Amino acid sequence: MKISKIKVQNYRLLKKFELDLEEDLSLVIGKNNCGKTSLLSILNKFINDKRSSSRSSFTCDDFNIDFQKHLKQKIEENQDFGDNFLGLSLKLFISYDATDDLSNLSKILMDLDPLNTSTVLAFEYSMSDEDYQKFKTAYNEFKILKTAKIEERYSDAGIITPEELAARQILRDQKKQLIFHDFLKNNHQTYFKLRKKSVLFDLAKGIEDDSNFIDLISEGIQVDKIINLNIIEARRDVSNNDKDKTLSFLSSKYYEKKETNSNDSVAIQQFKETLTDTDSQLDAVYENLFKNIVEKVGTFGGVAQGDSVIKIISTLQHRELLKGNTTVMYDHNNEHSLPEHYNGLGYMNLIGMIFEIEVLLADFRREDRENEKPADINLLFIEEPEAHTHPQMQYVFIKNIKNILQAASKGLKPGDIVFNLQTIITTHSSHITAESNFDDIKYFTRKDKNQVIAKNLKDLEKDYVAAGEDKYYKFLKQYLTLNRAELFFADKAIFIEGDTERILLPAMMKKIDQEYPATPLMSQNISVVEVGAYSHIFEKFINFIDIKSLVITDIDGAKEFTSKDKDGKDVVAIKKCRMVDATSITNASLKFFHNGKSESAHYVSLKLDWKILRKNAKKGSWASNRKGRMLIVYQTAETNDDGQAYHGRSFEDAFFHLNKSLLVTPAYEFNSLTEKHLTKFLAGDIDVYDFADDAVGSKPTLAMEILLNSKTDAENKEFSNWQTPAYLKEGLIWLMKD
């Protein structure tokens, strides 16, 4: 038995949200503020909240913003309740088979068809039609009174200038806009009610039938035997303060869970017997220790003989003894034992999580409750396990956690309690992501500013396989694992060809920031990925993660050259050439994204807006679209300071065309350039195309030399003695904007 899917409606960013869960472990990843914590929150509030149906832990801010706007419009336009669901909901889709114990689930099953092996648990915080009508009436009365108070408080009395009148009107309008939110904030618990349901899963349609349900609250059916949720939150009580004994406290919690477990009864009994023996020994010690005060008490006498005779005995409690009286130590070089707070926070966090996991596993087994079986489904939610830990620790954690949890739920030895366990782990760690099974990964991304969706990474593999590009997906998976799992957490991405761009890009971004300081590139969460000339291999991935992406490539102009073979016959070959002579391009990525077009004239004529692309989901191809989130830039025609126009074919000739003066200055050293060709270029004997083609010995070295020879001007602007080629500059400016 397992949860196959989670659906959430109208909760914070989870407006219309669906998440497929894996059988064992689901790794939830995504950028900051993309709904990961909201998922934990709604699960906890609905499943673990023991409050009555008349009260809830939900607040006004839990309602999705678009839902609040919809409800406001519906009420102010005096619309009927209709068929719309008004509220928050969490649905757990439960799948089972013939091997499962259905004694608990049978109470909520609504379809006896043996082929239907799914049911839905639904939790709602919603309004009924009756409550909706009451809400409307109360809100309209509140609005009239509140509006009158606003008009009175922010009247135009005493205001003279038009500017003051306009400012006062704006203030009044702002206050009026908040009336609905104020009413909802203070009154939602009066009109929204908690509801728990078992909903029919319509096998024929493959969806839930909300009109066919069992009210679990009115029927008195508890769900804690069906599902048990335990959480390890990101805000863990880990500290290396010498007064803090977090791990030691966890050891006592662990004991409390294990105490009633029959499998550990021998160890528990030994502990209790040792305490009894210690009590007897302490009784004798206490008799001497407290002898003086006991005798003084005895001198006061009493009504009858012996009334004021007391004795002090030892009553060690096995549970209380562990609280504050155990210390977790760690061995240092096999010579000394050091207290827990000597550990770094990373180790303490990792050890603390292991303790917590063991405590929660004991809770799942119901070890502290006699004659009670584990719930049918046990859900463990671990939030951001990477806190305080370095990459190697994160690798160790994710490599081992799945095996540890599987072993615990399936039993390590005969007689162990077996239970169904599913785990959700959320993370911001690229290291944990890279070490994970990609089929377990769930990627959260914003669909718009008020809505988040979840994507299965294994669905991306299906897209590649369907297109006959299995090897591309294999390459992508290896590449992301070894190099760039950080892409999943980036807000924007830059895909570059090689070392030259990688080395120089930060300097170019800095130059853009100096010119446009309002939204600096260097302060944005941008991931730079080196893909060679194979950005087209990443196209499905770029579309999948749906972040603003800049692809930087070379135009690679070419034309047909005719030569003779050994038999004297003409042989036509496509070879690189100057862009002024080019008739075609050889760049595979450019041709892919532009539907196979190879004519150089097409690319030369494109303005920036036409280089912005968007994927057509139905056709599966990319097309120019100003609303697109991907831009491909390549060399364009430019005029340098000497008035010479030139269209570069690669970064090197485009850069040297603009920055010939950098090579003329004696103080600047470029050892990567062949002196013979440099002399010819400066003398005008060869053009920039031949110079870039023949003179550059090492492109990475050249890039480093450009940085080493860079200067800061009198206005403190860095890299001021060279210019960025236009195609790179316009691409970075586009990326800089939201």
Automatic annotation (TrEMBL):
Q: Which UniProt keywords apply?
A: Endonuclease, Hydrolase, Nuclease
Q: Does the keyword Nuclease apply?
A: yes
Q: Where is the signal peptide?
A: none
* Matching SUPFAM superfamilies: P-loop containing nucleoside triphosphate hydrolases
Which domain of life does this protein belong to?
Answer: Bacteria
Q: Which molecular function term from Gene Ontology is one that the record holds?
A: endonuclease activity
Q: Which residues form the Endonuclease GajA/Old nuclease/RecF-like AAA domain?
A: 1-432
Q: Where is the OLD protein-like TOPRIM domain?
A: 488-556
Q: Does the keyword Hydrolase apply?
A: yes
CDD domains per the UniProt record, alphabetical: TOPRIM_OLD
The name of this protein is ATP-dependent endonuclease
